[in-house]
Amino acid sequence: MMNVQQQNVSSFIKVLLNRWQLIVSITLLFTIGAGLISFFVLSPVYEATSKVLVSEGNTQAANSDPATSFYQMEKSFKLFDTFIVVAESPQVLEKVIDNLSLRDSYGQLSERVTINQVRESLAIEIKVRDESSRQAVQIVNETAAVLNNEISKLYGENQLSVLDQGNNTEVVSQVMPKPFLNMVVAFLVGLVLSMAAAFVLELIKRPIERTLPKTEDTAVLNSRMLTKVDKL
After folding, report:
1. 85 and 131 co-located in one domain
2. Of 12, 19, 92, 215, which is the most exposed, with the fewest CB atoms less than 10 Å away?
């Protein structure tokens, strides 16, 4: 059993060594191709982030009465879904488009805007993706400002406050493409495909090699028969 396994491993390694040039060529082709496409073909996409804090309401009442404080906090959590719906609505995003004179439609902008509750907090996180880092910052800041105004109109008080704005390098990052990640993935894909190609070529080669000795034997046999005939 061990001999069979050793033979299989030996055959596997032998195929890889015999086809190493093919494997290296295909792997490099995939890796370099992915790098060139990532760096020179794909347009970069930037993401700007802004966080908005949901107010607990009357802070004096909250501080003086623990029951009121708990009620206000529970109320704030229940308002999250409402605020997120408002933030994603045409009521907010269409005003952002008008204020910034964007060419996007509501549908196009909504696909690039992501709004979620920050985990275990009273904050809402607004993320905007754009091919221009400057425009991503403008959109995320304007969305936060318009949302704040709309919530104030709906509830008659300032329920939101902007914690940070997308006006610094810490909240703006390039999210796409990721050249090095793309190159690693392309390297692995190229390696797997090149190894598969090596084994396919080996499987095609073996039947051909098996027929060659038979052809040679036939030629030798024919030559011997001719020699005997000549002697006769």
Report:
1. yes
2. 215
CB count, 10 Å around CB of 138?
20
Q: How far is CA 103 from CA 98, 113, 147, in A?
A: 9, 15, 20
- The answer to whether the bond into 44 is cis (omega within 30° of 0) is no
What is the residue-wise DSSP string for 183-223? Answer: HHHHHHHHHHHHHHHHHHHHHHHHHHHHHHHHHHHHHHHHH
pLDDT exceeds cutoff 50 at 59: no
Does 7 reside within a domain? no
- Whichever domain contains 114, its CATH number is 3.30.1890
127, 48 Cβ separation under 8 angstroms: yes
Cα 124 to Cα 134: distance, rounded to the nearest angstrom: 22
Lookup: tokens for 53 = 């804090």
164 pLDDT above the threshold of 50: yes
CB atoms under 10 Å from CB of 52, counted, come to: 26
- What is the extent of the structural domain holding 59? 45-176
